[in-house]
Each structure stands twice: as structure tokens, then as C-alpha cells.
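Sanity check

After download, print the first record. It should look like this:
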Amino acid sequence: MPDGKRAGERCVQLGDDWRCRIFGDPRRPACCSGLQPSDEMCGETREHALVWIERLEVETQPRAAQLS
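Expected C-alpha cells:
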């Protein structure tokens, strides 16, 4: 996504099976390849993981985006 991805916006590389289409590919963005899953992040359900990731996206977006 050349212009970045807003919090909550589906990544264009996310397949219908919820897997990254470019996992392991050198074109994969550093923000994705640097994300290290943990038990705390993944939890027991898919819903838990999605809430965690959404919060992470909101907390790490540029300050100007948080104010609008």
C-alpha cells in the first residue's frame, strides 16, 4: 500500500483466508515483518487478536492523525 494503511483498513495483501499474500517476500513492509506475535497479542480467539492489532494501529499512528 504505497500511501500507507489507516487503522482498521484491510491490507490489500490480506487474502480471503486471512493470510498475508507476501509473507516471507522481501517486498513485505518492515512494519509487518517486524511485528512479533505473542500469547498476549494473539489470546485465545481471533477476535482478541483483532482488537489487540486495532489498538496497536491506533496507538502507533502519527500524532496528527490521532487529533483529527
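If your output differs, re-run the checksum step. Summary of this record's structure: Residues 38-67 form one domain.
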